[in-house]
C-alpha cells in the first residue's frame, strides 16, 4: 500500500513513497487513503543552472585547486557547476583512492594522489576566487561548537 498524495509530509521530506502493510489503510502522515499500486513520482521542477560557456578544443586549461580530501571533490564540483565554470578533473579514479584498508573514510589511500581541477585559463581567476573559502577552511566551525 502506498500514499498517492504528492503533498504528503513524508514524501516531501524523503522524496520516496513509503510502502505500508496491507492492514494500514490510511497514510499515518497525511491521512490520505492508501492505494495498492505505487504512484508515479511527481514531476521534478527544472532547475536553471547558468549555461557553461563553450570551450574551444585548443583552449589552454589551468589547474585551480587540488583536493586531497575525497569529501571536497563533490563540493568543488557543485560550486563550479553553480557558477557555470566548465572544468575537468585529473586523478579522479573512484576506486584507486579507496583501495585497501584505512582508518578513516575521509582520507585518501596513501599511494594515490589528489584530484586536480582544471578550468579554461580565461576563467581560472574567477574559479580561484570562488574556491578560496574552501581552501582556507572558512566552512569549518569555530572552536567551542
What does this structure look like?
- The protein folds into 2 domains: 1-45, no CATH class; 61-136, UreE, C-terminal domain (Alpha-Beta Plaits), CATH 3.30.70.790.
- The protein has 3 helices and 3 strands.
- The protein has helices spanning 9-14, 72-83, 124-136, and strands at residues 61-67, 88-90, 115-120.
- It has a 3-stranded antiparallel beta sheet.
- The longest helix has 13 residues, at 124-136.
From the structure above, extract its key features.
145 residues; alpha+beta; three-stranded antiparallel beta sheet
Condensed summary:
By secondary structure, this protein is α+β, with helices and mostly antiparallel strands. The chain has helices at residues 9-14, 72-83, 124-136, and strands at 61-67, 88-90, 115-120.
Rg measurement, Å: 22 Å
Going by CATH, the homologous superfamily of the largest domain would be UreE, C-terminal domain
Helix share, percent = 10-25%
By DSSP, the count of extended strands is 3
CATH topology title of the largest domain:
Alpha-Beta Plaits
Question: How are the elements arranged and paired?
Answer:
Elements: H1 9-14, E1 61-67, H2 72-83, E2 88-90, E3 115-120, H3 124-136
Antiparallel strand pairs: 1-3, 2-3
Helix pairs in contact: 2-3
